[in-house]
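Subject: for your reference before the review

Hello V.,

The reviewers asked for a structural picture of the protein, and I figured it would be easier to keep everything in one thread rather than splitting it across files. Below is the amino acid sequence we used in the manuscript, unchanged from the supplementary table.
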Amino acid sequence: MKINAQGVSEVVLEVSDMKRAVDFWSGQLGFPIVQQWGYQDGQFTVEANDIWATWLYVGGPTNLGLWLPRKFNEQELLQKASSVSLWNGLFDEGGIHVHLALYVGIDQIESAIQVLENHHIDRKIVIRGIHKRVYFKDTENNVIEFYTQSMEEDYLSRFHPI
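And here is what came back from the structure prediction:
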């Protein structure tokens, strides 16, 4: 038996400056804002004056979260160090981000490159066969990739050849 996942639901990147990150991801790259939250008294809230988290729709089944660093109290730090089955509300905290790759179809990659160019975003284009990978950094120095290869197609071709 295997898990029948349908793709990535959400990815969250930690950012140090919410306005700058939102300007980059939504203003420059054009991903629409879905929701914004504050964080008060250990709880997420949609009624806060200061934005602590922003959700953007990046396509398919996937939202991208931009979150400010969270300051943990001593009790929360102990909880994070314990087994996840003992956690009580820290499920939103993970590990270290390596890079984020977003699927951009072959028919759309040139317009995506043009958006990066229009905003003077430094990029590296790597071509392998018919596929392109476009690497760049966001405002937090996270490595972001636009990749024209569908992982679903790749998986099916490797493990379910027609």
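For the response letter, the relevant points are probably these. The radius of gyration is 18 Å. The mean pLDDT is 84.

Happy to draft the paragraph if you're swamped.

O.
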